[in-house]
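tool_call: predict_structure(chain=1)
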Amino acid sequence: MVVMSPYKIVLLPGDGVGPEVMDQAKLILGTLSKIYRLNLELIERPCGFEYMKRRGKAWEEGTFELCRDTADAILLGAIGRPDNTTPLPVGEKSPGAEIVLGLRSQLDLYANVRPVQLFAHVRHKISGTFNNVWSPENVDMVIIRENTEGFYKQQKEWERSINNNEVIDQRVITRKGSERVIKFAFNLANKRNGAPVDGKARVTCVDKSNVLNGCRLFREVFNSVATAYTTVEPDYAYIDAFTLALLQKPEHFDVVVTTNLFGDIITDLAAVLQGGLGMAPSANLSDTHGLFEPVHGSAPDIAGKGKANPIAMILSTQMMLEWLGEKKNEGDMQVASKALFNAVIKYLKKGKSLPYDLGGDAKTTEVTKNIIAELEKKK
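tool_result:
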């Protein structure tokens, strides 16, 4: 019998609620490993603002090399300051930029993938209420954000201060960067079931091409790529109009593709449709590497109180298993991924023991325990 080497998963818990939700991911992976005989090796490394305060650096020596050269996948909790009300001084280096943006740029994680799906018994947060406007099946899209260019591209020479009174941030949009992420979006649309409103495979290009040259290039590339995908409908929206359409008619959208900063903003807005950031998972993908993280931040106001919703992290873990299963052609990994997704759905459908942000009072660990109970029914 041939024993396969374990898949090495690097865990970066980070700050605030990051370690709390990472602990839940470890419990989930442990359960799945037992049920589906997954051969996983979890390698945990400290990082973030708290680590920098203690050690004077963003992460443990050799962690980046571990992520680049050894990891089959990376799971990240959250990076954030304990006091997130005051911005860092101009020019001061942030551990978040070094870790998150550093990994995205240096591992070429060009596609940020953020599913936006409303599950049964999860109520959206429009106007801070729990009133439903749409049935769950009307919110089911994926937003693809270009992840290595735009305003977040790490090039120090493009950031300069003039007399300490003016700062210039420059945006970079390239044909190559645009083309690969737009192709990613069209390929994904070919695998999905289409937009909820009509079942059509559709990719919506979100930009500001009526004003900005970088967006004009992005849309030009979008139009060029679209011609090769005859079964997918190309769709268009300016970023300002899109924010309105996103909330008015989410059922129209299937796959959305946009530039880096726009994508960062609209995915947080879209999280309102799915019950909040505690329900929002994400993946950062290249052709060889994958980093998976909940969209929410470190949430220092609730850290240590057991209030964090672990579902965004659990669904990010599910995305990681799905990606590994496809990349490695590993059937057990794909089965485990589907089982985890279904377990989350079954738990939410019961509408009981929900976390604080979904209107319940269940602790972080209790939510995980209920999802594990659904998984173990497979046994």
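agent: The chain has eleven helices and twelve strands. Proceeding to next step.
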